[in-house]
Design goal:
The protein is an alpha/beta fold. Helices cover 40% and strands 18% of the residues. Strands 1-3-2-4-5 form a 5-stranded mixed β-sheet, with helices on both faces. Strands 7-6-8-9-10 form a 5-stranded mixed β-sheet. Helix 8 links the parallel strand 6 and strand 7. The protein is globular, with a radius of gyration of 24 Å. The N and C termini lie far apart (50 Å). Bound molecules: 1,6-di-O-phosphono-alpha-D-glucopyranose (G16). 1,6-di-O-phosphono-alpha-D-glucopyranose (G16) binds next to loops. The site of 1,6-di-O-phosphono-alpha-D-glucopyranose has 18 residues, from loops. It comes from Coffea arabica.
Length: 554
């Protein structure tokens, strides 16, 4: 690092002192904490993004959001050149930057890393970082900190892409690195045209009619509501009403996380909505769940990420079976590798259902960074977390195969070409960079119309086992270390045996605990044959977490 670069870094970084006594960890998807603690971390992630861009010679994205967390929190996520999450190899570097006690230590850490990674700070290539933020008020000053971070690296430029959903920013990074246009207009255009294409390919006589045509979306009082309003104007064949568009408090009693965890109606919904198809986004619109308001109660029938996955799997399987029908000469052997990726939170009934369809189901730890990486190993990989994070990935080789079929005039069956066209349209509609509530919603809607299904019919695919999720505030959540895709606790010792003893008391009991990567809590998930039993198991294991880890209430 030359003297000019060093002095710029020392000067600007001294304006962003880290808060005393706070240790930040790079969690499930970046740094997340009360917004007042984050300015210096965001500045430093700006530095990291510039270096990552120099190293990869590609555009990197920085998204300022705390997604489903309460409005007083904020956070920062990094999008790698593919549009996916920051490579996990760089997470320790991110943590040491964020926790460096002063500017001199910070510059030392940077200098060592630049040497180790052989990053050319004054080469030909200039770094480019796309910045986005959600609607949180604290995002305005944090965005400035990120800009300053990028600007502290001499050969780096930041481009403010505006107030966006998280998946939009990831999409833009991916598009730009593929040499494509990457504006919001291009994003909307791709989504609306591929949606239209799927509707045009619907077999005649499938469309659902009547009240079921209407869809009501809870926008979590976040950015997704505004973007859906804009997208709506470009869509024919979909009747959408958007609620919770920003007049209430972000994520408070609204949104996908609330709906999925509490299983009650979000603010703004009520008895008049019984029987109507409803959906919820989270604060930055990277999660999607559907639900039905129950008559005479504030309860909902939840149609979660697992069921969205089941719907997608059914539709894709249908197209693959058309493609794989014998008779025509296809350009490739018909063994498509379709993979399903779930986490321990997947309801046991969903896993049984998918396996019974003959699908390959694999598990990873929680977090888009894990499920996405696994899904990318297949020709078509579908991942969904029960909380509504998910997408469908197509390998480049498989897309070429589909293009070949599509343009192969010697094929006797146009059905085959239609199936290939549908799969190609899905690959353009569904975000290839990350889970995206807007594109996921359009794919769900297109598939329901294709099958001629109501939400009630969809929900009947299988019946969830009763489950309960709880949060436990403990002294140090990092004391919990898990293994086997988070199904077993290896530290503190003895707790897993105690959990096993509780599980053994319940018919069809299943339970695990894990430290959250986005909130300062340990999460408990329990499943059993009745709701009472699932509740009992969750509460008794939460008590164990208290005993072994020390409650903050004691
Ligand atoms: C983030 C991740 C998700 C993960 C969720 C919960 O979601 O992107 O993959 O499922 O956190 O994580 P945890 O249980 O570790 O708190 P979001 O929507 O908050 O960005």
């Amino acid at each position: 690092m030359n003297d000019k670069q060093r002095s710029i870094l020392l000067d600007i970084s001294s304006r962003f002192s880290p808060p005393q006594g706070v240790k930040l960890s790079y969690g499930t998807s970046g740094f997340r904490a009360d917004a007042s603690l984050l300015e210096s971390a965001v500045y430093r992630v700006g530095l990291l993004a510039a270096l990552r861009s120099l190293k990869t010679r590609a555009v990197i994205g920085l998204m300022i959001t705390a997604s489903h967390n309460e409005i007083s929190d904020n956070g920062i996520k990094v999008a790698d050149p593919s549009g996916g999450m920051l490579t996990q190899d760089w997470e320790p570097f991110a943590e040491s930057l964020a926790n460096a006690p002063d500017s001199y230590t910070l510059v030392e850490i940077l200098d060592d890393f630049v040497k180790k990674e052989k990053i050319a700070l004054d080469g030909e290539w200039a770094a480019e970082v796309f910045l986005g933020r959600d609607t949180r008020p604290s995002g305005v000053s944090l965005l400035e900190a990120a800009k300053q971070g990028v600007a502290s690296i001499v050969k780096a430029n930041a481009k403010d892409m505006g107030v966006l959903t998280t998946p939009q920013l990831h999409w833009m990074v991916r598009a730009r690195n593929k040499g494509l246009e990457a504006s919001e207009h291009n994003y909307f255009d791709q989504l609306s045209s591929s949606f239209r294409c799927l509707l045009e390919l619907i077999p005649q006589g499938s469309r659902i009619v009547g009240t079921n045509d209407k869809l009501i979306v809870d926008g979590a009082d976040g950015i997704g509501a505004e973007k859906l309003e804009s997208l709506k104007g470009l869509l024919n064949g979909l009747c959408v009403e958007v609620r919770n568009s920003g007049n209430g408090v972000l994520n408070e009693g609204v949104g996908a996380d609330y709906v999925q965890k509490e299983k009650v109606v979000p603010r703004g919904f009520g008895p008049a909505d019984v029987g109507i198809r409803c959906a919820s986004f989270d604060g930055d619109a990277d999660r999607l769940v559907y639900f039905l308001v129950q008559p005479n109660s504030n309860k909902i029938e939840l149609v979660d990420g697992d069921k969205i996955m089941a719907l997608f799997a059914l539709f894709l399987e249908e197209q693959l079976s058309i493609l794989n029908k014998s008779g025509d000469v296809t350009v490739r052997p018909n063994q498509t590798r379709l993979g399903i990726v779930q986490t321990a939170y997947a309801n046991g009934a969903s896993t049984s259902y998918l396996k019974q369809l003959g699908l390959e189901v694999v598990f990873t730890p929680t977090g888009v960074k894990h499920v996405h990486e696994k899904a990318a190993e297949y020709d078509i990989g579908i991942y969904f977390e029960a909380n509504g994070h998910g997408t469908v990935l197509f390998s480049e080789a498989y897309l070429c195969y589909l293009e070949d079929i599509n343009s192969n005039l010697s094929l006797t069956s146009t059905e085959k070409q239609k199936a290939a066209s549908r799969l190609l349209a899905v690959s353009k509609l569904i975000n290839q960079a990350v889970g995206d509530a807007l594109s996921g919603l359009l794919l769900v809607e297109a598939i329901l119309q294709h099958l001629g299904w109501s939400i009630q019919r969809w929900n009947e695919l299988y019946h969830d086992l009763p489950s309960r999720q709880l949060k436990v505030k403990v002294l140090d959540r990092a004391a919990v270390v898990t293994a086997n895709a988070e199904t077993v606790v290896v530290k503190p010792s003895g707790i897993q045996e105690a959990i096993n003893a509780e599980i053994a008391k319940y018919h069809k009991g299943r339970c695990f605990i894990r430290p959250s990567g986005t909130e300062d809590v340990v999460r408990v998930y329990a499943e059993a044959s009745t709701q009472e039993a699932a509740d009992g198991l969750a509460y008794s294991v939460a008590k164990l977490a208290d005993q072994f880890l020390g409650s903050t209430n004691s």
